[in-house]
Amino acid sequence: MAKPTISKKPPRLVRARHVVQAAFLAVWLGPFGLRLHYVCGPVFHCYACPLASFACPIGVLANFCALGVAPLIALGTILLAGALVGGFICGWVCPFGLVQDLMAKFPVPKLRLPVRAGYMRYAVLVGLVLVVPYLYGESHPLFICRVCPAGAMEAGLPAAGQALAAGESVWSGMSTVKWVILGLFVVAALVKYRPWCTLFCPLGAMLGLFNRAAVLRLKVDDRKCIACGACRKACRIGLEPHRQLRDPLCIRCMECTRCDAVGVTTAFSRDADTEGEDDADAAAS
Amino acid sequence: MAERGATRRRMILPAVLILAGAVGLVYGFAFHEVAVHPKPEPPKAEDAAPPTGVPPEVLPPDEEPIFSPDVLFGGGSAEVPDLTAAPEPPAEPNIFRESRVVKEVTIGGLERLPSGSIMLTYGPNEAPPKTCPT
């Protein structure tokens, strides 16, 4: 069996990821005045941001629950994007993920929390996006948009800036709760890698479920993998990529591809079956 | 042959999900409609029903006034018009496509009434809210 090669420098896919993230900013931030707020983008980007091109699917989902209307456009967008690329949206496309990636570059020791803390995302999805809006409406303090750090950063900060420019207090541009949430988020993003994505993001919670079924997926070359744990050390989420490539918590950051036994494939490829299934799953099948 | 069968099986679930997403999007944009009531005009002050009943009694100076509807508006059969209650929406709603509803929620332009109806939060002669109120 050939031994895998472990790369010390960022692999090609990680470098490509940063380029793609930056390029997609031009789509989400509509520099040419593109305002298509009747369409949902498949990313976590507040539609109250002055430059937002599309509507946030989570905000739309929550508001539609508050109105009692079926959110077909938002759900269709999430289904289509998830079925095509799954968690790649989180790692390669989402602008709020890019903000957290940039903040993680500060040389501050990073906390590592238990991986299963990521299932809090489903509590946020069910509680703050679906149940609270449906039962209590948009004015409830726990309505997702009222506690969302993306809204605080992308919409609240510009609003506070506008208030300041107009000679008013910055507090009139954004509520105190949002200022506190923004402050907590900034601290968290410095001391933990992607805290929103890994612990709270309801959109990531949905897209991660498609990691099992998306057209674009990761694979492990069983002929090279020797279960040395190098991919586990590289994984910034705390997963074991050689066994958990389809885990819903994986954001496809591609750090595990430092080992050349891990790569990208599609559902059409013949080698897509080598996806690092859990040993228990393999034994059961 | 076995590989081809495995490849086909692997493609079924993504294909079904992609189809479901596409159908949801097409139906949402092209066919899904929502009834939205326009914001009714608020009642003018002169149109409000005047209070009925006898004028309030003049109380002795050493007694505390009791500001109850019975004192202000007379006998128990008098009704106090509640001018702060939201006026009921008119009978005929407008039909909005779902894409229009998506756009309206991004600016806080819709609200759900206790009756379950959906109403615009701004009138035809008013500027729409600039950003989502949250």
* Average pLDDT metric of chain B: 74
How many E-type strands of chain A?
A: 4
Task: Work out the radius of gyration of chain A.
Answer: 20 Å
What share of residues of chain B is helical?
25-40%
Distance between the termini of chain A: 25 Å
Task: Explain what the structure shows.
The complex is a heterodimer of chains A (285) and B (134). With 285 residues, chain A is mainly alpha-helical. Chain A folds into two domains: 12-209, no CATH class; 212-284. Helix content of chain A is 48%, strand content 6%. Chain A has helices at residues 12-28, 57-67, 72-85, 88-93, 95-104, 120-136, 144-147, 149-165, 176-191, 195-200, 202-209, 230-234, 279-284, and strands at residues 36-40, 54-55, 216-220, 262-266. Mean pLDDT of chain A is 88; it is low at 276-285. Chain B is an alpha+beta fold. Chain B has three domains: 1-31; 33-45 and 87-134, no CATH class; 49-82, no CATH class. Helix content of chain B is 32%, strand content 10%. Chain B is built from three helices and four strands; from the N terminus they run αβαβαββ. In chain B, the strands form two sheets. In chain B, strands 1-2 form a two-stranded antiparallel sheet. In chain B, a hairpin with a 5-residue loop joins β3 (110-112) and β4. The model of chain B is unreliable at 66-83 (pLDDT under 50).
Could you give a quick summary of the protein structure above?
The complex is a heterodimer of chains A (285) and B (134). By secondary structure, chain A is mainly α.
Descriptive keywords:
heterodimer, A: 285 residues, mainly alpha, 2 domains, two-stranded parallel sheet, two-stranded antiparallel sheet, 6% strand, disordered C terminus
Topology:
The complex is a heterodimer of chains A (285) and B (134).
Chain A (H helix, E strand, L loop, with lengths): L11 H17 L7 E5 L13 E2 L1 H11 L4 H14 L2 H6 L1 H10 L15 H17 L7 H4 L1 H17 L10 H16 L3 H6 L1 H8 L6 E5 L9 H5 L27 E5 L12 H6 L1
Helix pairs in contact in A: 2-3, 2-6, 3-11, 5-9, 6-11, 8-9
Chain B lengths: L1 H29 L2 E4 L32 H5 L20 E4 H9 L3 E3 L5 E3 L14
Antiparallel strand pairs in B: 1-2, 3-4
